[in-house]
Amino acid sequence: MTQVNCCLKWLLTIFNIIFAIVGIIIIVVTLNSQFTYANGALALDVHTFRKPELYIVGSIIMVIAILGAVGAYRESKACMILFLVCMILGSIVMLLPGTLLAVIRPQVASMQEETYRGYLPLDKAPADKRHEVDSMQREMQCCGLFSYKDWEGNIPDSCLCNKLEEMEGKCQTVDYRGLLQGVVQQKKSVYIQACFPIVSFSTLLLFDVVMGTFFTLAVLGLLGMVLSSIMIHQLRNPNRPVGVLMSVPAYFNQPPPKYEELQNIVPSTN
C-alpha cells in the first residue's frame, strides 16, 4: 500500500461520511416533504422538483461518497480519479440549476400574482380552480386569494371559522349587504388571512431551500475536488511533499545544534 499522509486520508474519509449524510438527509426529507399546497395550486408548479428526481440525487450522492471513502481508505488511485471526475461533474451540475433559480427568484412572486389574478372572480372561475382554492383555504385557514371579496359574496364553507378560531382572533365578521345585487345576506365569520401571501412565502422559502441545497452540494464538490487532487498527487509521488498544509517544513526536522556550535556562535566578552 502506498504511503499517504494520514491526516489527508482521515480528512477525506470524514468528508465522504458527511457527504453520505447529506445524501441520506435528502432522501429522508423527500419522504416527509410536501411541496405543494391545495393539490398543486401553486402558479409555478413545484412538482418540477419531483420526488423521484430527489431520490436519484440522494442515491447518487451516497454512491459517490462510498466510492470516495473506499478509495481513501484503500489508497486506490483508480477510485480517487473516478471520485475526482464525479466531483467535477457534480459541481457543474449543481451550479447550473442553483444559478438558474437565483436568477428567476425575484420574478416568482409577480408571476404567481399574475396567474392568480386570472382566477378572479373565484365564484366564476373554472370548477378545477375553485376546487384548488377551496382545498387551499381548508388547509391553510385562509379566505380568498387576496381577500374574501374574491368570492363576490358566494363564500364557500372552507372560509368559515369555528368558535375557537374566533376566540383566537383569526376571523372577521363579514356583512354581505350589497354584495349580491343588493340582496341582504346573513353575517358570517370568515378567516382574516388571505391565501396568496401564505402561498407566496412558502414558494419563496422552497426556492431558498432548493437553492441552498444546490450551492451547498457545489461547495462540497469543490472541496472534494481539492482533497482528492492532493491525494492523487501523493499516490503518484509518494516521496514528494504536497504543499505547506500536508508537509512539515525542513527546519523542524533538523536536529538541535550541539553545545559546541552554540558556544562558537556566542561572541566572547573579553
TrEMBL record:
KW Cell inner membrane (keyword) present: no
How does the protein associate with the membrane? Multi-pass membrane protein
Q: What GO cellular component entries does it have? A: plasma membrane
Give me the segments passing through the membrane. Answer: 12-33, 54-74, 80-104, 213-232
Disulfide connectivity for this sequence is 142-171, 143-159
Which Gene3D superfamilies does its entry note? Tetraspanin (1.10.1450.10)
Annotated family = Belongs to the tetraspanin (TM4SF) family.
**What protein am I looking at?**
Tetraspanin
